[in-house]
Design goal:
single chain, 311 residues, MetI-like fold, two-stranded antiparallel sheet, 14 helices
Length: 311
């Protein structure tokens, strides 16, 4: 009896040691990522949260608690800066998702006729760094060097400026559609090819056309990926910075043209780093609340739809 108890204890110790060793190996495997995540994400957020609680004048800082946040809620420039993100969120994101879905269906339709080449061409703009994209589009829309200048002169618009503040939002719409539609279409296509072919084959036997199969049968399967892409692109629209910043070299823009530009100008042009840190936290919080709201509503709709399908 004693021998059996000793054997059980020894087996238990061995199992515990194996589990401990496995845990150590797992943490060692995760260590590089955790170190990078803590250094590049957790620490800057913690430092920004600390700085947001201080006032600043030059190099001198003093503790003021939540006063920066109270000032931001009464700062009209901060809330006015959301006009461009709101325009991109309500126009660019839905238009891009719809266009990307059409392109993804065309990818599938053209799979045997150079589909890989088309995917490469549409995806290529997304691989170009944002700063390079800004330089290229700045050249395209510049008044003196634009390739469209001779065409405009020929049509009698020789004195017309190509890039002005009123039409800048539509130029931003064009740039973001050019840069991200191909990537979004590629992600949708990746989900599209995972749909069982039995559904489309059965619909074809019943006489359905390609687009009827695409919109009535396959589109419901893409709901989850479209929600995810909507959230990611909405976050990008709220935090837009590179494109208006580069085009701002050609047209005079207010410091609060977008929230990210207002935060950047407050920190580096005006030296209000603590105030900018507080604005950054509020922008991150608003983005998180919006994303959570969209995700929860989408989840409720999916659960409601599934419950209606059940007998």
């Amino acid at each position: 009896m004693m021998d059996e108890m000793m054997m059980d204890k020894m087996m238990t110790k061995r199992r515990m040691s194996k589990k401990t060793l496995a845990s150590i190996k797992a943490y060692l495997f995760l260590a590089p990522f955790l170190l990078l995540f803590i250094t590049m994400v957790v620490y800057p957020i913690a430092l920004g949260a600390k700085l947001s609680l201080y006032g600043q004048r030059g190099a001198r800082m003093w503790y003021i608690g939540l006063q920066n946040f109270a000032t931001i809620f009464q700062d009209p420039k901060f809330w006015e800066s959301f006009r461009i993100p709101f325009f991109l969120l309500t126009v660019q994101v839905p238009l891009m998702l719809f266009s990307a879905m059409i392109i993804a269906f065309l990818y599938e339709k053209m799979e045997k006729h150079g589909g890989g080449l088309y995917r490469f061409i549409y995806y290529l703009p997304h691989t170009i760094p944002g700063i390079v994209t800004g330089i290229v589009w700045s050249y395209i829309f510049s008044d003196s060097m634009s390739p469209f200048r001779p065409v405009l002169d020929l049509l009698g618009f020789s004195g017309t400026k190509i890039l002005t503040r009123p039409n800048l939002q539509f130029i931003l719409l064009l740039i973001t559609l050019w840069a991200f539609t191909g990537y979004t279409a590629f992600v949708i296509y990746s989900s599209l090819i995972a749909i069982p072919k039995a559904f489309s084959e059965q619909a074809q036997l019943d006489g359905a056309t390609f687009w009827q199969i695409a919109f009535k049968i396959k589109m419901p399967f893409l709901r989850d990926v479209c929600i995810t892409l909507f959230i990611f692109n909405a976050i990008g629209a709220i935090q837009v910075f590179n494109e208006p910043w580069m085009l701002g070299k050609l047209v005079v823009l207010p410091s609060n043209y977008t929230p990210a530009m207002y935060i950047y100008n407050s920190a580096f042009a005006q030296g209000r780093f603590t105030y900018a840190a507080a604005m950054g936290l509020i922008l991150a919080l608003l983005t998180f609340i919006f994303s959570l709201y969209i995700l929860r509503n989408a989840t409720k709709q999916m659960l409601t739809g599934e419950s209606q399908l059940l007998p």
